[in-house]
């Protein structure tokens, strides 16, 4: 069965209704968001070849961008992928609390990878190993393996006084972008990809 992005919209104090018309969005300080993602370009590591096509497309089409003097267009681009990073309930120091940020999102994607490896092992295939080149190949061959996040930005990356200044961050866009990477994982499509015959 086809799966579409689902957003939970409050209906009453005790229930929710599903809205499948809403795509995923990135937190946007200009729309009242209080956190943003990291993202951009390394000034230490060069960009690997497997990123060239998607990153060059982004850089040649998306405006505004930060001043080119303030980021390395040829640096390693990040992020590779995105995941929800807000309001995870955890049991910490004797109480249930919420956590946010990369510390919340990274374990979610790691769990997806663990499940993909389990699917492969159950089908007598080796584990995935170094993922990054495969993620970009997966996107090129089966873009439905990611939910493309095209709304939002990370314009609060420099200093709080620059929040919402489009010259201080990067916008989400169709395809890979320096705010949400390739997008968020669509698990069942990823399973189809990692189990397909070579």
Written overview of the protein:
This protein has 198 residues and is of the alpha+beta class. It has 4 helices and 8 strands; from the N terminus they run E-E-E-H-E-E-E-H-H-E-E-H. Strands 1-2 form a two-stranded antiparallel ribbon. A hairpin with a 2-residue loop joins strand 5 and strand 6 (95-99). Helix 2 packs parallel to helix 4 (187-195). The longest helix has 21 residues, at 102-122.
Keywords, please?
two-stranded antiparallel ribbon; 4 helices; 17% strand; 198 residues; 8 strands; disordered N terminus; alpha+beta; globular
Average pLDDT reading: 81
Query: What's the tally of helices?
Result: 4
Beta content comes to 15-25%
Cα Rg: 18 Å
Give the terminus-to-terminus CA distance: 24 Å
Principal-axis shape = globular
Report the uncertain regions: 1-22
What class do helices, strands and sheet pairing give? alpha+beta
Please give the share of residues in helix: 25-40%
**Annotation, overall tally of beta strands:** 8
Return the string of H and E elements: EEEHEEEHHEEH
Biggest sheet layout: 2 strands, antiparallel
């Amino acid at each position: 069965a086809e799966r579409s992005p689902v957003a939970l919209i409050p209906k009453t104090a005790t229930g929710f209704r599903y809205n499948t018309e809403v795509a995923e969005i990135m937190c946007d300080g200009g729309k009242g968001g209080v956190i943003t993602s990291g993202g951009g370009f390394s000034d230490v590591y060069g960009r690997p070849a497997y990123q060239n096509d998607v990153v060059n497309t982004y850089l040649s089409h998306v405006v505004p961008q930060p001043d080119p003097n303030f980021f390395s267009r040829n640096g390693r681009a990040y992020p590779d992928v995105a995941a929800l990073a807000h309001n995870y309930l955890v049991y910490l120091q004797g109480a249930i609390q919420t956590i946010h940020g990369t510390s919340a999102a990274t374990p979610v994607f790691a769990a997806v990878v663990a499940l993909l490896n389990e699917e492969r092992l159950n089908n007598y295939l080796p584990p995935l190993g170094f993922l990054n080149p495969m993620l970009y190949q997966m996107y090129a061959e089966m873009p439905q393996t990611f939910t493309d996040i095209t709304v939002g930005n990370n314009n609060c990356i420099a200093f709080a006084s620059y929040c919402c200044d489009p010259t201080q961050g990067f916008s989400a866009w169709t395809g890979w972008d320096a705010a949400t990477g390739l997008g968020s994982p669509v698990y069942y499509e990823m399973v189809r990809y990692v189990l397909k015959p070579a």
